[in-house]
Structure formats: C-alpha cells, structure tokens
Design goal:
0% strand
Length: 88
C-alpha cells in the first residue's frame, strides 16, 4: 500500500538466491508486479513450509508431498503467464 501511495517500503518477501524468474527490474519497479511477486512468494513459502513441517507423516509420503507442492507452487508462479509477466 505504501508503494502505491508513492512511498518507499522494504520488500516483505524476496526470491531465493538463484531464482531467476524475477530478475527483470519491472518486478520491483512497478508496484502492481511487485505486489504480485511478493504475494506469490509469501503464499508459496507458506504452503511449502506447511508441508515441510508435517511431523506425523510417513517420510516417503512427506517427500512426495513436498515434491508435488513445490511443483504446484512453481507452476502457478506469475512469471509463467503472459498477462502477469512484465518481461514478456
């Protein structure tokens, strides 16, 4: 909200090191794309963390769930869609 109002605000979420999906400067300079990026990063980190914290699950099933959750969260990244990727 501060960025939309023209104020400076530190990012709430940052991509992991080596994550090249959000390298284009427009992801940070444009407030709309910045919100999309940070919302996606927060949601995907939360979901992946939720699965990783499961304790009473068979280890093999947990690894499968972590793998498929990572696939899902990577697939729904805004960088994968024409309308939500400023680099395209």
């Amino acid at each position: 909200a501060k960025r939309v109002a023209g104020q400076e605000a530190p990012p709430v979420a940052q991509p992991a090191k080596g994550d090249k999906r959000f390298n284009d400067p427009a992801w940070s300079e444009n407030p709309v794309f910045d919100v999309m990026k940070q919302s996606y990063l927060l949601a995907s980190d939360w979901l992946n963390g939720l699965v990783a914290q499961a304790e009473t699950v068979d280890p093999v099933m947990k690894r499968r769930a972590e793998f498929f959750t990572k696939l899902l969260t990577d697939a729904i990244s805004p960088s994968n869609f024409l309308a939500s990727n400023p680099a395209v």
